Structures are given as structure tokens and as C-alpha cells.
């Protein structure tokens, strides 16, 4: 097994169990535009992306809209307050064993950073609801609005490396529940890329991005890394 000094984990569907509420909300705001799009199509075309991009790409792939940019902006304006309202009442939790994994990684000298297609406000709200703090359970939190380019570009992983003073991307593992997480890992030159089946996409969808491993959950990393 390659030496790893930094593990970067996606949030929703990977380290945070929020019952797919984010993509259900994306789905709803697209339905509100009058289009008949399925949740499965939203997951296929939007999973893991910054959420305006997720809406735009779903509209482009699944509708005959001739005003995609404007309609996506309109839907996104409705998405943010709808998601915040949903999260305020949702029982957000981690997947079983995730906190123990983070603790074990720290004891093994491996830093833990979360990255996400959420904006900073929503991501910090989730982290607070979980009772996590930077400097305790996690070593950093990187959101899509903190960098110039979201996934599949490597910017969020590069920022995570900067935060943790890791210079060699071969010492970095990236894990996520969507193919775009794997594409992000490869763009950054990560030493390991891992797809997990606890969230948005299927094994076949993840396999298209050719990760090094596909696991049921990130907790299985404990046996691989420690």
C-alpha cells in the first residue's frame, strides 16, 4: 500500500449521511421549472459538482431547454434557501464508524480534510451539526466557493494540501461517492483514488472513472491504510 499522509473525503454520501437531501433538492428545483427529470438523472449528471454546475449539467443533458444558463440561475436561487431549510430540520449524522476512522488515521499520522461541492455556509452548518471542529475531528474543510474552479479540477485538493503542508500529491488519498471525485483525484495527481458506494452513484458509474478501489464505505479504508 502506498504511503499516505493526507486523506481528503467528500462530505455528502461519503463521510456525511444526509439521505441524499442535496440531490433531492436539486431534483425538486428542476421539477419546479416544469421539466420531467428523474432523481437518477440528477445523480448521474450532477453528483459531486458545485451545485449551480450540477443544475446546469442536468438541464443540458436531460431537457430541451434553450435558455439553460438563465434557468439554471433561477433554479439555483431557489436551491440554496430550500437546502438550508431542509438541513435545519434534518437529522444529519455520520456513517457508522467514520469518527473512529478519523481518529485512527490521526493516530497513524494521516491528516483528514473534508472537501465538498457545497458552499462554505452550508458545509460549516453541516460540520457544526455533527459536532465536528477543525483541529479536532478534522484538519480542514475546503468548499467549492473557496477556490477558483470546482471538480473535476484539482483546486480543492491543492488547497487541502496547502492547509496541511503536504507538497507531494502522491501522499494524498481522495475518496468520494461520485465519478467526479475520482476525476478530481486524478487531476491532482493523488496517490490513491477511492470510490465509495454509500452515496450518489453505482459501482458501474464509479468504475467508469477508474478509481484504485471501490469500497462499500470509507470505513473500509482502515484495513487498507492502518
TrEMBL record:
Annotated GO MF terms: phosphoglycolate phosphatase activity
A Pfam family it matches: HAD_2
GO biological process terms on file: DNA repair
Segment forming the signal sequence: none
GO cellular component: cytosol
Domain of life: Bacteria
Protein name, UniProt field: Phosphatase
Organism: Echinicola pacifica
